[in-house]
Amino acid sequence: MAQILIIDDHDTMREGLELLLRRRGHRTFAAENGVRGLDMLEEHGAELVITDLKMAQMDGLEVLQAVRERFPETEVLVITAYGTIEKAVEAMKLGAADFLTKPFSSEQFGVKVDRLLETREERERLRRENRSLKVENTFLREGLESRAPSRYGEIVGEAESMEMVFRWIDRVAPSDSTVMVYGESGTGKELVARAIHAGSPRSSGPFVRVNCGALSESLLDSELFGHEKGAFTGAERRRKGRFELANGGTLFLDEIATVAPATQIRLLRVIQERELERVGGEATIPVDVRIIAATNQPAATLVSENGFREDLFYRLHVVPITLPPLRDRKEDIPVLARHFIEKLRDRTCSHIRTVTDAALERLAEYDWPGNVRELENVVERALVLADGEELDADDLPPFGNPLGRKTNDYGPELPSSGMDLNEIVEGMEERLLREALRKSDGVKAEAARLLGLKASALYYKLEKYGIEG
Q1: Inter-axis angle of helices 106-129 and 131-141, to 10 degrees?
Q2: What is the pLDDT of residues 341-398, one digit of tens each?
Q3: How many domains does the chain have?
């Protein structure tokens, strides 16, 4: 369902188009001339503007130019009874999404609108997916050849185990081989996938991510393979799946171990045959996609204990890359902490520029079950709360249970000097809220399920801590 503006000085045509669009489930508003239409667009916004070409005061081409200049994200469909090839070419050169000549049937009009909106939706989705990748590609084009963090996106590390990861990325990126990335939650599996894509011959193509664990079996089928109009209740128009959207690029399948057996079979066929059928469709569609999959389950137990198909496992486990947990590379904590200070300083409006040895020692005492992601959360919170230009141990918020400290059955042992219970509890609660949102890829219903909360309680707590999901 989209919001659509209709501009036409013919009352019957304008009202008829509104009726057709509303029957297809769209929200509409209309104007009798271009000046009024642009005012309404300024006030309400729209995904699509449908404008007549020949109008008094401001014709359709002038409306088109104004929309492209002032509202570049809005598509424009030009319609006219005075259609000529010259006018069509002129409209397309000025940025019209399409051109339709009267008379036309209601079905022709509906199909045209659906295709324009579908194309716009796909473009916006890919733009969001590729935002981080564009930054990485910019660094690559500028010829940064040193092993700076930018060479591998936001992957940071100097430990020998991370040097091995970098070597694997360099080795596998130029190939088209399927890669399986193993690692605990928060170790940076998606960053590895993006770095491989950025260094590959497919880097100019799309990088498309799917969080397999955030979707039910039926939704995941539609998300991966697409669906035809009418394939199921609510399928109001044809939609391409992530395989088609990633054509010519890379498809990253996160949390692959959660995929249901029936979907595993379809996935195996696409990988083997490089073709698919949309849900509810019969046409066979070829796809040219490199697959990178990721899981937080160890390779040794993925098949035996998690019910993963052995044939699919061997199709994905061509080049395995294992990311070490942060507790096994604590020598990287100083460089990671400084990296996060630099990365998050502007976002948190902080004046912090350095970190003291005492703060680093305290960070190194902790086991980091949430890995690099948890460390980033702690640094971000510290930047929000700390004053001055140096991050000290006292500026760090409470986080987890440091290594070597005694615990009882209920968690950290109460020190003789006492503690601020509210601060400890709130710190843990905020960390778990952020972790749940990251694990659920921002899907609040899934985050509420992970935390055992009602949706209303989750929204209250997010507002309480100022967390944007």
Answers
A1: 60
A2: 999 988 888 899 999 999 999 999 998 988 999 999 999 989 988 888 999 988 888 8
A3: 4
Alpha helices in 274-402 (DSSP H): 299-302, 310-316, 333-348, 357-365, 371-385
Name 122's Cβ contacts closer than 8 Å, sequence gap at least 6. 240, 245
DSSP 268-298: HHHHHHSEE--BT----EE---EEEEEESS-
Indicate the burial class of 314 (C-beta count within 10 angstroms; 0-12, 13-18, 19 or more): exposed
> Residue 148: which residues within 8 A CB-CB, separation 6 or more?
none
Q: What confidence score (pLDDT) does residue 419 get?
A: 61
Length of the chain: 469
Cα gap 211→282, rounded to integer Å: 26
Going edge to edge, which strands form the sheet with 98-101?
Answer: 27-31, 3-7, 48-52, 75-80, 98-101
Q: Are residues 329 and 279 in the same domain?
A: no
Q: How far is CA 320 from CA 207, 294, 302, 413, in A?
A: 19, 10, 13, 41
* pTM higher than 0.90: no
Asked if 82 and 118 count as a contact pair (C-beta separation under 8 A), the reply is: no
Residues 25 and 106 in one domain: yes
Does position 139 have pLDDT exceeding 60, yes or no? no
End-to-end CA distance of the chain: 23
What confidence score (pLDDT) does residue 413 get? 54
Tokens of 408: 């009882």
Can you give the CATH number for the domain in which 457 is found?
1.10.10.60
Residue 55 structural domain? 3-126
Both 116 and 162 in one domain: the answer is no
Query: For residues 231 and 123, what is the distance between their CA atoms, to the nearest angstrom?
Result: 23
